[in-house]
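Example 4.3 (complexes with small molecules)
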Amino acid sequence: MRQIILTGDRPTGRLHIGHYVGSLRRRVELQNSGVYDKIFIMIADAQALTDNADNPEKVRQNIIEVALDYLSCGLDPEKSIMFIQSQVPELTELSFYYMNLVTVSRLQRNPTVKTEIQMRNFEASIPVGFFTYPISQASDITAFKATTVPVGDDQLPMIEQCREIVHKFNSVYGETLVMPKALIPENESCSRLPGTDGKAKMSKSLGNCIYLSDSEEEVQKKVMSMFTDPDHLKVSDPGKIEGNTVFIYLDAFCRDEHFAKYLPDYKNLDELKAHYQRGGLGDVKVKRFLNAVMQEELAPIRARRKELEKDIPAVYEILRKGSIEAERTAAQTLSEVKQAMKINYFDDMELIQEQAKRYSEG
Ligand code: TRP
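Answer. The structure with tryptophan bound is encoded below.
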């Protein structure tokens, strides 16, 4: 079977390093691995509108930000099809049919939707579109016959729900849709990179994100003021690495070769952690190391972004071409879906002739 990837992001802001270690970096590796026959990367503007209906301008402005972030991380339009969700109307049509296969109570049990509803204080005023976005996400995945969906682990309930829809569709209408599987980050720190203040989630409103487009100075400032172990007051004190943001970031970013280059007193992260836990290792030293590691990784991304920013129309052209190609693929799946559901009346000669015969006899 052909190996196909689909994944995407909501354009509600610039992408940060949580997106990067949780998914972008992996996507680029997958893209370059040569294992996949097709890769679709979607800017999920329609999904972003499900909880930003009154702020379309925010979504509109952030499409270019996300596209610039994609390209600067190394997603390559020659290898990956980047497109805008709303420009593929077939996705909406699929959702309408999938809605019949999902119950309200099943949507209410989706843990990601549950937390998001709490976070947004929707209480009794949940927009229907928001409530049903897991169904629309199933359309995104199945329209492209994706076998693999690389996502952060907060998205696992969405993939699970999609799998249920695929199963249900295929058992009611016959084998049509491809069963996808999620591909989640290799380590827990990459899955859930906390904010620089140690809070569980990076969020623009908390001001605790490091963005891919941040300058060298901004990154340094954010790293040097990062939350560590609040009880590690003196250098000689033993320190905790659990819940210590600096070490979580090191888990996500550093490799053994970084030690040889920037901190040769240690062979690897385990040695550094052991010293910190024993006591005698100050936060500043560890932060300086983290800063060096992160700057090394982010500098080329920042430089590419600067280049891309010089030709914004070219970036839109990439998205336009991608959207045309994406639509072609989704239209094919939609036609298979309609055929399976027997709502392809005009192509269904058997139906027309059988009814013609019945009426002429009657
Ligand atoms: N829900 C994803 C996010 O919050 C974005 C998204 C929309 C997506 N459709 C998708 C991800 C399909 C993977 C597959 O970022």
